[in-house]
Design brief:
This protein is an alpha/beta fold. Helices cover about 25% and strands about 35% of the residues. The chain folds into three domains: about 70 residues, no CATH class; about 100 residues, Sandwich (Immunoglobulin-like); about 120 residues, Rossmann fold, CATH 3.40.50. The strands form four sheets. It has a five-stranded antiparallel β-sheet with strand order 5-6-7-9-12, with no helix packed on it. A five-stranded mixed β-sheet has the order 8-14-13-10-11, with no helix packed on it. A five-stranded mixed β-sheet has the order 17-16-15-18-19. The N terminus and C terminus are likely disordered.
Length: about 350
């Protein structure tokens, strides 16, 4: 490209082309230099989570060997390695600009437990502890996605090789007990524990396995991402105070809401909160593809045309959308009109009292 500019300067036959080529060159170089700063994707880092006090030399050697980019500490002062910044887990916030490539737990002799499955960050812990017949010890094995989202339930499966008398498994978090199971029989058994996160951030939970002869504690890390806003389609009748309050609350919570108020049989009024305007006059597969939840009044549901109802029913059957039906204040099971029961629950038409 430099030789091309030099040729233009020597002949100087097309000065406008020379100036255009020079401008293109410097613009390209400028954009190339600024791109890493202004168009940078989410940074992928390898994280070491320090769960107990360790010598600085061991932490430094492990971080150098595995190219660790960040250190997290379960309690302040555990991460003594000063070459990397240490983040205290309970006070740390979720960072959307960082993608965790791999996570290690530094503790119990620097035993790394990690795996990469289908390019999804996961954390796996299979303790390497020798078992003897004289002193049987329960051995847990569990694997899960440690990156979760606020507002969604967490369900973990754990398999434990219980000794003769069984034992108990207790799941504890920063606020105390979360869930627990007990087993009164021996053998390799599967258990499931669940919780519902209420705050975003990085947390280090614990599983306590107790038998008649031993008590073991295993760290369980979590990264709870902030809840994502919902795309909601509200199909209401004539606007009311309740609808205004509900839509304002949803908008203030950051949800993207589209409202279609039915003023008459063929007349609608549209309103949009946190989302661009679109045509809401007819319910179509293309329209429903932009939403995750439909909130509809019972009279409006009854007035949908056959094609609109089939479109909504198809989206419900495929699990692509959720349905919230706003019933009248004087609602009782027998008061639900027959045509609504017939559309929603064909098998319950004969018995309206079985609707709830």
């Amino acid at each position: 490209m430099f030789s091309l500019i030099f040729e233009f300067r020597r002949k100087d036959r097309w000065p406008w082309l020379r100036r255009a080529a020079t401008l293109f060159l410097w613009t390209s170089l400028t954009l190339w230099g600024l791109r890493p700063q202004y168009a940078r994707p989410a940074k992928a880092v390898r994280v070491a989570w320090v769960t107990e006090a360790l010598p600085d030399s061991l932490v430094q050697a492990f971080c150098s060997e595995h190219q660790i980019g960040e250190l997290w500490e379960a309690e302040p002062g555990l991460a003594t390695h000063k070459l990397l910044p240490a983040y205290h887990v309970p006070d740390g916030l979720y960072r959307p600009d960082t993608h965790i490539d791999t996570l290690w737990l530094l503790g119990e002799g620097l035993t790394p437990g990690h795996s990469r499955l289908d390019s999804v960050p996961r954390w796996q812990h299979i303790p390497r502890r020798e078992l003897t017949e004289e002193s049987p010890t329960p051995t847990p094995s569990f694997e899960y996605d440690y990156q979760q989202q606020l507002g969604l339930p967490i369900s973990l499966a754990v398999r434990i090789d219980w000794p003769t008398d069984g034992g108990s498994l207790v799941w504890r978090g920063p606020a105390g007990l979360i869930d627990s199971v007990a087993s009164d029989s021996a053998g390799n058994l599967a258990h499931r524990l669940s919780t519902f996160p209420t705050q975003a951030g990085r947390y280090l939970h614990q599983w306590e396995i107790t038998t008649n002869t031993d008590t073991l504690t295993y760290p369980v890390p979590f990264v709870i991402a902030p809840a994502e806003p919902l795309d909601i389609l509200m199909l209401s009748g004539f606007p009311s105070f309740e609808h205004r309050t509900l839509k304002n609350w949803l908008g203030e919570a950051g949800h993207r809401v589209a409202i279609r108020a039915q003023l008459s049989a063929e007349r609608f009024r549209s309103e949009f909160i946190n989302r661009p305007q679109t045509n809401l006059n007819r319910i179509s597969p293309r329209l429903l593809a932009d939403y995750k939840l439909v909130m509809i009044d019972a009279p409006v549901l009854a007035s949908l045309s056959a094609s609109e109802w089939q479109t909504l029913q198809a989206a419900l059957n495929e699990g692509e959308i959720g349905l919230w039906i706003q019933l009248p204040e004087d609602f009782t099971p027998p008061s639900v009109p027959r045509y609504i029961r017939q559309r929603l629950f064909p098998s319950l038409v004969s018995g309206p009292e079985r609707l709830l």
